[in-house]
Amino acid sequence: MKAVKIYGVEKEVLSVGLNDLLTLFNKKDQLYWCMLFVEAVGKFREIDILEFEKMVYEAKDGLQMSFYDLKMFASEAEQLLNVVLIGNEETKRNKRYKNDDDMYGACDFTIELVDSSYWLIHARDYRDLTLFLGIDGAVYTEE
Q1: d(CA 43, CA 20)
Q2: Angle (CA) 21 25 29, round 5°
Q3: What's the rounded Cα separation, in Å, for the pair 18 and 130?
Q4: CA distance 99 to 2
Q5: How many domains does the chain have?
Q6: 136 DSSP 8-state letter
Q7: In tens digits, what is the pLDDT along the chain, a chain of 143 residues?
Q8: Residue 24 structural domain
Q9: 49, 98 Cβ separation under 8 angstroms
Q10: What is the DSSP string of 74-111?
């Protein structure tokens, strides 16, 4: 399955943040967002990040978030380590999946941060991946 992998321009430190990715969404008002996994440092809306992580883990279908809340989270978290987000035009697809391939095939967008090292973005319609190719360090991959 085609994806875009983003390392950024600096080899030692990922130079692309979640806000950088979110600003590229022209369908932002048409997508419903869901956080399935998060490891981070800092606070979100005065909630300790460990408590926020627990909220995400305990949410049966993941934590449903508005685009505004997602942007706020991206701005407030001091450091993101691992993240799995999905964005869909239909809320019924915002849920936890049995495996990654099912998730990639069903979701309009999947955004993953892997070990603070790179972003991996899948889109149900691979043409939507072109949104991210303008970012320095972005390449197509088959994952």
Answers
A1: 19
A2: 130
A3: 17
A4: 16
A5: 1
A6: T
A7: 889 999 877 667 788 999 999 999 866 668 999 999 999 998 888 889 999 999 999 999 999 999 999 999 999 999 999 999 999 999 999 999 999 999 999 999 999 999 999 999 999 998 999 989 999 889 999 87
A8: 2-142
A9: no
A10: HHHEEEEEEEEEEEESSGGG-S--SSHHHHHHH-SEEE
